[in-house]
Amino acid sequence: MKILTLLTLPIVLLFAACTSSTPQERILKNGAKFTNLPAKHQELAERGELARGMSADAVFLAWGAPSQRYRGLQGNIVTDRWDYFTSTPVVNNHFDMHYGIGRGWGRRGSYSGFSFGPEIQYVPYRKATVLFKNSKVDSWERMQ
After folding, report:
1. What residues contact residue 63 under an 8 Å CB cut-off, 6+ apart?
2. Does residue 87 sit within a domain?
3. Of 61, 111, 116, 139, which cross-links 104 as Cys (Cβ 3.0–4.6 Å)?
4. Whole-angstrom Cα distance, residue 101 to residue 108?
5. pTM of the model
6. Residue range(s) defining the domain that contains residue 32
7. Euclidean distance between CA atoms 92 and 87, whole angstroms
8. Over the stretch 18-40, which tens digit does the pLDDT of each residue have?
C-alpha cells in the first residue's frame, strides 16, 4: 500500500502543477479580494486585463501569481516587479557512440554501443512583467 501511495503522489502533484487557472477561477476562490476592488478594476480582472493604478490583488486576479517577485527603490519610490514565466519545448537530435573497458553491463572486458534519437528539453522564458510603483500598477508588458 505504501508503494502505491509513493508512486501515485508524484503523478498527482504533476497534474496539479499542470492545471492552469483562469481569472474566473481565481475570483471564485478569492471573492473578498474581488469585492474590495473598484468596479472598473473588477471588469478588467474578469477579462484578464490590466490598467495603470490597479492594485496587486487586482493583478493577481487577472493574471495569477507571478513566477518571481522583485522589490526595488527608484528615488524615493518603492517598486515591485512581477515576472511571469512559461516554457517552450526544444527538440535536439543526438547520435552518440561510446566505448569502455572494464565491467560493462555486468561483465568483464570491453564494451561499445551507440544511441540516437530526439531529446526534448523545456526552456523557460519570461512571458510578461508588471511594474508596480507605490503598490499600484505603473506599467506592464507581455509577449505577443
Report:
1. 48, 50, 84, 128, 130
2. no
3. 111
4. 8
5. 0.71
6. 1-65
7. 16
8. 556 999 999 999 999 999 999 99
